[in-house]
Every structure is written in C-alpha cells, then in structure tokens.
Amino acid sequence: MSDDPTQPAQRPINPWTLWIPIIMICLGVVVLYNYLIFNSMQAKSDMITLSDGTVIKRPPLMGRLEKDMEFTERSGKKVNLAELKGKILIASWVFTRCPRGCAGVIAKLKKLHDEFGANPGIQFLSFTLDPDDTPEMMKKFASGIEIKDTDNWWFLNGEKDVVRNFMTFSLRFRPVQDLPEADRLTPDDKYIHDLRVAVVDHKGHLRGLYDVMNGDADTQAFYDKLLRNELRYFLEEQKKDQK
C-alpha cells in the first residue's frame, strides 16, 4: 500500500478474476474432448463390414415410399409398386429417343443387371419422362440394347405429372427441364433430366442417389463402386430380415 495520501488506495486483487478464466478454459477443453470422442464413436458406429470384409459407411435413410402407384409397363400391362413389396428397387429415368445420356445410364444398369439381376430380391425400374413413349416404343428401345423381356426389369410410363411428381418428390430426382427448341441438339432433344440412379431398400426407404454418369471419370468410378457395395449391403439386410 502506498504511503502517499494523495494516491487512491489500491484494492486487493480478487482471486476469482484469475480462476474464472482458468476454469472456463478447462471446461472448454473438457467439452471439446468429449465432442471429439463422441464424434469418433459415432463415426465408428456408422461403419459396417460386409460379409466379404469390405468396410463401408452405413447408407442414410433419405425418405420412404408411402403409397402405391400404378404405371404401364413395356408389355402393355398395368403394374403396381405394391407388387414389389420386400424387394430392393433400382430406379432411373429413361427417354427412348434421348440424344444425351439415357443410353449411357441404361448401359450402366445393364452391367449391374448382369451382376445382380439373378437375385429375386432386386427389381430394376426405368421410368420414361416422355408421355409420348408407348409400350411398343419402350419395348423396341430395350430390345435394341439387348435387354430381354424380363419380370425383374420394368420399363414404365404413366400420366406425365404423376410420373414426374413421383420421381421428384418420392425418389428425390432433380426436376425435369423442358428444353426450348432453340437449344435442342435434334428435334427429339426435348428434355434435360437427372442421370443418377436411385436405390430403395426392401423396407421402402430411399437409401441413395448415385451419379454414375458424372463427367469426371474418377467421380464416376467412385459412384459405380459405391452403388455396388451399398447394394450388397442392402441385400444382406434383406436376407437377415427374411430369416
């Protein structure tokens, strides 16, 4: 304490002014540590091992198919999604006169069908976005790329708004864009549409959209591999639930 009476008396230092910042720092460290541990445990719990030893991240639940839908198949008969209950669905857009990526998507799916199509728990669904595609046109398109008439690959059409709403709101595809005539490559080049592939598990949950036609070769290869790995996981889930 100063002996000078003209100087104000100095107040003693409150020890809490030193300890409060230290305590807050310690609490912050504890919270951060717990957060990192929780995230690490969460990340580990999200990883699954397939029967062949492949480790993948558990696919998310992106939505659910809530109601039955009726469409017209390339055979000309009416079919319902309810007929496919308990099956894994692999869905895509298609357009029989498409000058852009449809043939590429179907070619990718054909390879997938060659690998997994013998499994009775899988169903391929290709929806035409063109209401003018008749069953005969869809059948000719499929046979032209050597896809045989088979019960586990449906080529489907229906009322324009019904089909597009189903694909956009239930399967989460990007909305179809009608292409102005001035921007068309050919007179049949009428639409810009999503080239991804959707997968719905056997419980009706949308589990993934796979960019198998991505313009980057490495990204495309990534999605090709991811689709196959996750499809094997869905088949293992399906098999467990059938026991």
Describe the structure in brief.
The chain has 243 residues and is of the alpha+beta class.
What order do the helices and strands come in, and which of them pair?
Blueprint: H1 16-45, E1 47-49, E2 55-57, E3 63-64, E4 70-73, E5 78-80, E6 88-94, H2 102-116, E7 122-128, H3 135-144, E8 153-157, H4 160-170, E9 177-178, E10 191-192, E11 197-200, E12 205-210, H5 217-242
Task: Give the spatial strand order of the biggest sheet.
Answer: 3-12-11-6-7-8-4-5
Whole-number average pLDDT?
A: 87
State the separation between the terminal residues, measured CA to CA: 85 Å
Describe the sheet with the most strands: 8 strands, mixed
Estimated structural class: alpha+beta
Residues in β-strands, percent: 15-25%
Tally of helical segments: 5
- Bin the helical content: 25-40%
